Protein: Iron-sulfur cluster assembly 1 homolog, mitochondrial
Amino acid sequence: MATKTIASATVRAVKKRVLPSRAALVLTPTAVQKVKEIMSKEEAKGFIGLKVGVRQRGCNGLSYTLDYATTKGKLDEEVKQDGVTIIIDKKAQLTLLGTEMDFVEDKLSAEFVFNNPNIKGTCGCGESFSI
Structure:
């Protein structure tokens, strides 16, 4: 399965919060709108949604990845919310459990932000984290 990196992401450690027990990942309305915008440009290419994963990187150990998804793996988790599809890589499922995905735009940057209650620490720039 070929994937293409499409966006940068930062991470924020947040206090524990209660989400619906079946919620692997929740998107804010801003994130839903941005995913719809991104996918509207790419639908003709056969992508079914965005795939969120984690990889070893950065000074704190892990960072998020965002790619286009063409298929859903057997053990991947699928989140459908407000007309968008997010595929969570099997290796990232426990890391992302209970996380809120947001899209934040200001004068200097525009990026997806993961508000993750499972994080124990982040690096100074916010690109990597530890669990």
